Records
---
Amino acid sequence: MNRYQLILGVFMLFTLCNCTNDIEGDKVVFQHATLRPWFDNNCARCHSKGKNNYLHWLYNPNDFETSFSTHYANQIYKLVSEGRMPNDAILTDEEKQTLKTWYENGRPSR
Ligand code: HEC
């Protein structure tokens, strides 16, 4: 086996190993047991596709990495901590803390 065959072999191995069940197509699905329902309950009514405010921020649980990019995750942390989102309800301190703890732990998708 020459060097190029070896590189190709390693590359193909990586490609094959990349198919775990939390990836739909090439997108990571948001499956976190606590935070998925948290966002579904508190944010989806305005920020899912087709809702009034999805152009400001699209919450798409089937595309975790876009929905929670560094830019949006930082904004979400700030808006929720300051009580500015959701803007039609008041979260309890405990609900805010749930979001903050998740963010501070590196915002895992599951
Ligand atoms: C009742 C509707 C409503 C709900 C519920 C709601 N939002 Fe919003 N959101 C808005 C509106 C309106 C805007 C745009 C105006 C603004 O920035 O205040 C917005 C804007 C945003 C933005 C973009 C801000 C910017 O500066 O561009 C983010 C991020 C966001 N919301 C996150 C959230 C999160 C996270 C939740 C759930 C905790 C949530 N929103 C719940 C109505 C809502």
---
Amino acid sequence: MCSKVATSREHVPPLCLFPENKDTKGIDFRKNLITVPSCDLHNSKKSTDDEFLMLSLSGLIKSNPIGTFHQLTKGNRALRRKNKDFIEKEILRNHRYGKIPSTNGKFRIVSIGNPNIERLLKCLKHIAYGLFRHEFDRKFVGEIRVIVEFIEYNDENRQTLKKFLKRRFELEEILNLGVKGANPEVFFYEFHKPDNYGLIGLRTVFYGAAEAYFSFIDENSKEPFNLGMKLIEGGTHTIIQLGEEEFEFNKICDNKK
Ligand SMILES: [Zn+2]
């Protein structure tokens, strides 16, 4: 992330995302964890970010049982040390409780609110830098863009972009550098080889379901690497074809109909 001298190594993703042996009664979810060199600033400064990320990801409704388990053990211990308004302030704004049907015909109490997207993106980008360093053995210099798959956006373009990126990773298996991660119930990832424009894709999956997609736009990548993105951001009605499917951005609404 920076050019300072590395003084330690840090875990990617953060160690606290992985259940501890004392909770799992011996099942090891901390096998062969990834570490990368880090400077003091980028390692120690983010300790509260690590906890934030753990609380944001482990309790998602669609997380696998390991995520739920981690939320109920380590997550709850962390929350007990916080003020009552910690969730509202730091994790979910406009926090309220709701009920959703569960599989046994009963209801489950869930938290509803607006995620702290700025902080979530910061944490996820930090992980992306670390994974890049681990995979390619060099520092990434350029711009990283993130789309968080498990957030429901009000913006229709972002919703379409999520589906588009998911499909792209499914279809372009040939580009895949392999699914990696020694504890896949907690975390795994896959990189795509650079495309013709030098753009690299990354998919990360936490607790079996919480996905995030990244584009690494190298400082030396050639234009027009993001022509499609520029059209979409500029508000132009754009249709991108992927396999048999079409993804439509900036749909024209005809109110006169
Ligand atoms: Zn640093």
---
Amino acid sequence: MYAVAGWHPNDALAAPDDIRPQLREMAKHPKVVAIGETGMDYYRMPSHKEGGTVEQDEIFKRKQAQIFQQQLEVAAEVGLNCVIHQRSAFADTVAMMEPFVGRVHGQFHCFVDGITEMQSVLAMGSVLSFTGILTFKNAQSIRDTLAATPLGKFMLETDSPFLAPVPYRGKRCEPAYVKELSEAVAQVKGCSLDELSTATCAMAREFFPKLK
Ligand SMILES: [Zn+2]
């Protein structure tokens, strides 16, 4: 078992002003293979709740940006990549990462965006990761994005305990369900499970250089 270590954007307001010293320490652990999940998430903003204000939204966004920046800095410093959590904040996430292109690669986890967004991610030298959402009946647009994404540019994940794939929808998701996800992905890509596995495993080893 390996870990990624980071500060999630949804918890940004609880972060100290400088998370770098602690993160540097954690990144040294032989089994910490990336920084993350880190990134930007504008899906649930303070103003969406009763009594929340747009001023609070701005404070939240600024704090997310501040700790994302710090995590990108540490990643560049220690030579690790970042697992990126992005929701309803694609443009800002990409803008924050641009100065780090060539030094830090992102894995945009649980990718649900379109072909244009996929192309901007790949153009930065970053990659995608798809979850069981892809097996949902109403997820044709994600299957279209996958169809346009070359083998060798995406990984697969379950994001358990959430997002169990068909036929386990609504149940607790398990890492083992990557099998059901893989079957759906192989069908979309028109490749064998062996070819898919070879491509995603090779990618994981390249992206997480400390994997043994
Ligand atoms: Zn996430």
